[in-house]
Specification:
With 289 residues, this protein is of the alpha/beta class. The chain has ten helices and eleven strands. The strands form three sheets. Strands 1-11-8-7-5-6 form a six-stranded parallel beta sheet, with helices on both faces. It has a three-stranded parallel beta sheet with strand order 3-2-4, with helices on both faces. A hairpin with a 5-residue loop joins strand 9 and strand 10. Bound molecules: guanine. The site of guanine has 8 residues, from strand 4 and helix 6.
């Protein structure tokens, strides 16, 4: 079998267009313009690029973005002050702190300081817990993007065996719960999993989010599987690759996401959607709706 490409880039463009129309309609009806504040601490080039891409995407669809760039040696207390300021700013509907943070800052403490109703990343414990019981205000953009990609490609999830490689709070765990909510049977593999290939070969839907180039090879994939590669790894020669050995896995899979152009654009599109939802919810609250 030779896989069909799951084209995240064009599906994300479709979603961005929908968001743009939604922003226009909301502005016409309510005068409200969604606003996302991003915080970048330090000067990691990859993080700076991600934040820049998010700001550019906001602009394209009519969302206001406020970019806050802070020095790498910033104290945790100063960062908490910045978040508190944004929490109480009525113009800001959504807050995103780009990860990773410098090692002297406690990431969990920072993420927990963001108001859940402005937490468009879905990393606050109240949103993560909400996902567990099926009613979060926000779900993280990458897992949402994966589910949207499957949905818009007419891939049935119910009854399928989904195997996720990687147990991060950013991707692996929320993706597992979303797939479970859609009635998949879910296996989560991680760094201590014995015989990873045994598990990946069971997958009807295989989601790989381990951050290890070349981790999943052709022999680890079942014929006809749907393969979602979340990895973004920059090699020493400058190439950006996923966690999956694309050519050999594409020979076995029925559908596969490329890197770049697969999950990455979907993540940004879903962040825009979450930001519009944050704004709409705030406006609804003000009008008692
Ligand atoms: N770093 C890598 N992925 C993400 C993400 O989805 N959100 C944030 N805030 N930081 C990240």
């Amino acid at each position: 079998m030779s896989a069909r490409i799951l084209d995240g880039k064009s599906i994300a463009a479709e979603i961005r267009q929908e968001v743009r129309l939604e922003v226009e309609a909301m502005a016409a009806q309510t005068g409200a313009v969604p606003c996302l504040a991003t915080i970048l601490v330090g000067n990691d080039p990859a993080s700076a690029t991600y934040v820049q891409n998010k700001a550019r995407a906001c602009k394209e669809v009519g969302i206001t973005s406020v970019r806050i760039e802070l020095p790498a040696d910033l104290s945790e207390m100063s960062l908490l002050h910045e978040i508190n300021r944004l929490n109480s700013d009525p113009v800001v509907h959504a807050i995103l702190v780009q990860l990773p943070l410098p090692p002297h800052i406690n990431e969990r403490r920072i993420l927990e300081a963001i108001l859940p109703e402005k937490d468009v990343d879905g990393f606050h414990p109240s949103n993560l817990g909400g996902l567990l019981v099926g009613s979060p205000l926000f779900v993280a953009s990458t897992p949402l993007g994966i589910l949207e990609l499957l949905d818009r490609s007419n891939i049935v999830i119910e009854g399928k065996h989904a195997v996720i490689v990687g147990w991060s709070v950013v991707v692996g765990k929320p993706t597992a719960f979303l797939l479970l909510q859609h009635h998949a049977t879910v296996t989560i593999c991680h760094i201590k999993t014995r015989d990873l290939a045994f598990h990946t070969r069971q997958a009807d839907i295989l989601v790989v989010a381990a951050g290890k180039p070349g981790l999943v090879t052709g022999s680890m994939v079942k014929e006809g599987a749907v393969v979602i590669d979340v990895g973004v790894n920059r090699l020493s020669d400058g190439r950006v690759v996923g966690d999956v050995e694309f050519p050999e896995v594409a020979e076995k899979a029925s559908l596969i996401t490329p890197v770049p152009g697969g999950v990455g654009p979907m993540t940004i599109a879903m962040l825009l959607k979450n930001t519009v939802d944050a704004c709409r919810r705030k406006w609804g609250e003000r009008c008692g709706r």
